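Appendix B. Raw example, untouched.
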Amino acid sequence: MKYKSLLAILVIAVLVVGTFSTSAFALKIIELPDAAPIDDIRIIEHGNNKLMVRNLYTTFDETFNSDFYLSGPGEFPAVADLILKVGPTIRCSGTLLDDEIHVLTAAHCVTDARGKLSLKNGFAVFEGNRIDVIKKQTFVHPDWNGDSLEGSDLAILTLESSPVIDNNPIVGHAIDKSPTGDLGCNQNKFDKAGYGRSGWGGDGDVASSGVKRNGQNCYDDTADQLLAVFRISTTTPHSILHYDFDNGESKNDAYGTHFGKSHLGLGSNEVNSAPGDSGGPTFNGSGEITGVTSYGITFSLVDTGSTDIDNKLNSSFGEVSGDTRVSTFSDWIDSVLTVSEPPPDDEGPKPCPPGKERRGLCST
């Protein structure tokens, strides 16, 4: 596989045998004592089953030079590089929505561990065009509680102005409002994009974040079956989409090995998410946002091993990633864009976003 992208792109994983046990053992959650903040790794054990989890943001030194992170023209110009101050300064990704003033991203990019909004300031970069985020007009889904495994990991940022390239507006993306066609790797493939770390599937996310990358994957299933093994339920059933990172070998096919949903990947187009991709989009064939990058996991049987090629949670082959299913939350997204926006700080009428104006969607 060649170097690719975005999301930990191209990373290979190791082996695992057997299926998950569902015997009624006590659930045990272990925090890695020596984990760096950048990793934010949790270990969850239940009987013979083990799960490692991390949100996919990247932390920065607070004195970073923002010019270093500007990217040049490329595919998916509406995908934003987000630099956000939330205690530490972190990198996430996001997507300009079709009103061209709001950016859809992950809630964990702007909140603390309890799900409370903690954004102090930040900006979005579109093809080298930096635009500040309006802190007071940041929206977090009301069901978000800080735990990505339970879902509702969505936030919407408001920009100070609409992004342009050479005086031409960047066209935003509509959201996918139907779950039909999301699942099934033999029928569907989706485009993923983001500014996260990169590498080859056999080595994990070894390259720095800050360059927009893209590739493809498909959704094997919703998260419900896997999470049920650990007695974890999502706030809304079937609201998280899972995809595994395949290298063409059955021993590293996570969903094939554990749940009988076999698919060996999309070859050199196959990608996974990595730190810095949080909030980035997964587009369907119509260019609508079907998923929003949330977390990465590796799971195994304690006594037999893992499909993960190196048994490390580093976006390598054999791991699984979770996207928030946008169609589940489409009503909330629409409500933010059309009803819930607070008035501007200087009062007076709010100008119509140019994307809506061009589509004739502004009220008179």
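End of appendix B.
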